[in-house]
Specification:
Helices cover 47% and strands 28% of the residues. The protein contains 3 helices and 5 strands, in the order ααβββββα. The longest helix is centred in the N-terminal third of the chain and has 20 residues, at 18-37. The two termini are 21 Å apart.
């Protein structure tokens, strides 16, 4: 699903204009981004938890040249689905 398809579907479901829906979606993404950049987790009830995790530095090997190099530490975003999503996906797999 593309961003435009998401906006169109949400607008239809909420009986909003696409402009209102787009602005609301932008505001939600902005709030989520600000919280994640600050190192806070972001929980959407019934959907899941977005959080940042710090990955430490590590040594990696180039498989072609066998040269070792240091990969610097970085911060990544992690998503843990909520129980509702997990149950819905289990039902999809079982019913197909």
């Amino acid at each position: 699903m593309t961003n435009l398809e998401l906006i169109a579907t949400l607008a239809k479901r909420l009986n909003w204009t696409q402009k209102q829906t787009s602005e609301t979606l932008e505001a939600i993404v902005s709030i989520m981004s600000q919280n994640l950049e600050a190192g806070n987790s972001f929980n959407i009830q019934g959907f899941g938890l977005f959080e940042t995790k710090k990955k430490g530095e590590r040594i990696s090997v180039n498989p072609v040249t066998k040269q070792r190099f240091l990969v610097p530490p970085k911060i990544t975003i992690s998503f843990r689905p909520g129980q509702t999503i997990k149950d819905n996906l289990k039902n999809l797999i079982i019913n197909e």
